[in-house]
Amino acid sequence: MNLATPTTDLLHHYHAALLEHHSMMTHPLHGLSDQLNKDFDVSKWPTTRHEEWKYTSLKALSQIEFSLEASSDSKKLKSYLESLPFYHTEAHHLVFVNGLFHSELSRLIPSEEKTVSSTYVHASLIPEQLAKVIGISCPAERDELRKLNNLVLHDGLSIQLPKGQTATQVYVYQLIDSEQPFAVHSRNLIHLAENAECKVVEHFAAFGNKSHWFNPTTEIQIDAHARLEYCLIQTQSDVGFFTGLSYLRQSDSSQLSHHTISTGGRLIRNNLDLILDGSHIESHMNGLYMLTNDTLVDNHTLVDHQRPHSNSNEFYKGIMDGKSCGVFNGKIFVRQAAQKTNAFQSNRNIVLSPDASVYTKPQLEIFADDVKCSHGATSGQLDEESIFYLRSRGLSHAQAKALLTKAFAGEIVERIPQPELRAYIEQQIDQRF
Amino acid sequence: MSKNDNSILEEITSSEYKYGFETIIETDNAPKGLSEDTIRFISNKKNEPEWMLEWRLKAYRQWLTMKNPLWANVSYPQIDFQDIIYYSAPKQKKKVNSLDEIDPELRKTFEKLGISLDEQKRLSGVAVDAVIDSVSVVTTFKTKLAELGIIFCSMSEAVHEHPELVRKYMGSVVPVNDNYFAALNSAVFSDGSFCYIPKGVRCPMELSTYFRINTAGTGQFERTLIVADEGSYVSYLEGCTAPMRDENQLHAAVVEIVAHDHAEVKYSTVQNWYPGDKEGKGGIYNFVTKRGICSGAYSKISWTQVETGSAITWKYPSVILKGDHSVGEFYSVAVTNNRQQADTGTKMIHIGKHTRSRIVSKGISAGKSQNSYRGLVQVFKRAEQARNFSQCDSLLMGDQCGAHTFPYIEVNNPSAQIEHEATTSKIGEDQLFYCNQRGIDTESAVALIVNGYAKEVLNQLPMEFAVEAQKLLAVSLEGSVG
Question: Is the entire prediction scored with pTM above 0.90?
Answer without folding.
Answer: no
